């Protein structure tokens, strides 16, 4: 029988800290996907006061070390009025900075949840070993969701402390190249995020705070880190790339729609970078004409997409708009044509 005692006060404090903003808007509690650049935009209407926020919070080692739940001081800056409104929640997708630039950005949350087809999964700090530890009658559960508690195989001996936050990865199906049949690796998906609420020397208890796909026993854990947003089309990109669709972020989809994520067989070695934006086409095919001749049909525009993350030979991409009812399937051969903003 499993027996864990979790303080209700601790749970309330953790949930409240992660999602609160003070009425005076002079402090901010870090949430998933936050960056100093984004906070500067929302509170000062310009991204360029991120260094002032960093200076006002000397305990931050660097911009990539923002931890959800941390309270930040928002300094008074001469000549600038802090916006008296709650910080916008649910940062995701593509948005435009206000007042300073019309250049779209990819939010760090979109990037952090992209996943990848890779033969080298992230180095695991630990694993989820039990689900629903708060309910002794739920031993048959095979997946959990936000608010559920899980047991981790790491604890104080590995430097785990109450409040430690981990990204949860699920290593999925093996992927073969649609044309060559070569094994490219596995789909590694971001399952969610958990926060440690109790810990002992060998193990810990964590609460699932976000789940993008079901979280299961055996999912691996990596310390959560934040990253800066990525400008779209910051410089020239490669054009006219032939590629294949390898897999989808959602393993249950047969076809994808706007704001779904796909994985393709082109990456950094092909010149792709995070933030590159393309129109995607399906190639035409040969059709026998009544005249007896063979005619190649025109390439069909399918969607617009943005490269999220690149590996050496694969990338993840966010579909931003669909231009045809002929949706993509795994194995489709496509062409990426540079999109002009």
Task: Give a structural overview.
It is a single chain. By secondary structure, this protein is mainly beta. It has three domains: 8-76 and 89-99, Roll (Membrane-bound Lytic Murein Transglycosylase D, Chain A); 116-223, Thrombin, subunit H; 232-338, Rod shape-determining protein MreC, domain 1 (Thrombin, subunit H), CATH 2.40.10. The protein has helices at 8-18, 36-44, 50-56, 108-112; strands spanning 27-29, 71-73, 94-96, 104-106, 116-118, 126-131, 149-152, 165-176, 183-199, 204-211, 220-223, 230-231, 241-248, 261-264, 277-282, 286-288, 294-296, 300-310, 315-322, 333-338. It has a six-stranded antiparallel beta barrel with strand order 6-7-10-9-8-11. Helix 2 packs across helix 3 (50-56). It is globular and about 75 Å long. The protein starts with 7 loop residues before the first helix and ends with a strand.
Give the tags.
Thrombin, subunit H; mainly beta; 341 residues; six-stranded antiparallel barrel
Short description:
The protein is mainly beta. It has 4 helices and 20 strands.
């Amino acid at each position: 029988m499993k027996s864990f005692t979790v303080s209700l006060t601790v749970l309330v404090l953790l949930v409240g800290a992660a999602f609160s903003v003070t009425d005076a808007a002079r402090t901010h509690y870090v949430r998933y996907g936050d960056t100093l650049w984004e906070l500067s935009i929302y509170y000062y209407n310009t991204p360029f006061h991120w260094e002032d926020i960093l200076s006002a919070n000397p305990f931050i080692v660097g911009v990539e070390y923002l931890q959800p739940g941390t309270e930040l001081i928002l300094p008074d800056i001469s000549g600038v009025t802090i916006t008296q409104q709650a910080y916008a929640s649910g940062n995701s997708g593509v948005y435009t900075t206000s007042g300073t630039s019309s250049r779209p950005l990819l939010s760090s949350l979109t990037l952090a949840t992209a996943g990848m087809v890779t033969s080298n999964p992230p180095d695991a700090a630990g694993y989820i070993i039990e689900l629903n530890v708060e309910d002794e009658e739920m031993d048959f559960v095979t997946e959990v969701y936000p608010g559920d508690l899980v047991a981790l195989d790491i604890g104080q001996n590995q430097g785990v402390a109450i409040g430690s936050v981990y990204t949860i990865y699920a290593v999925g199906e093996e992927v073969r190249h649609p044309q060559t049949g070569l094994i490219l690796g596995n789909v590694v998906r971001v399952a969610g995020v958990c926060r440690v609420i109790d810990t002992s020397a060998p193990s810990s208890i964590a609460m699932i705070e976000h789940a993008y796909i079901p979280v299961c026993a055996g999912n691996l854990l990596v310390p959560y880190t934040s990253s800066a947003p990525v400008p779209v089309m910051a410089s020239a990109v490669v054009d006219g790339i032939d590629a294949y669709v390898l897999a989808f972020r959602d393993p249950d989809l047969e076809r994808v729609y706007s704001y779904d994520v796909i994985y393709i067989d082109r990456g950094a070695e092909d010149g792709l970078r995070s933030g590159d934006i393309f129109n995607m086409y399906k190639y035409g095919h040969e059709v026998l004409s009544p005249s007896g001749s063979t005619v190649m049909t025109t390439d069909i525009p399918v969607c617009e997409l943005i490269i999220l993350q690149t590996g050496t030979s694969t990338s993840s991409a966010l579909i931003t708009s669909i231009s045809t009812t002929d949706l993509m399937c795994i194995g489709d051969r496509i062409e990426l044509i540079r999109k002009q903003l």
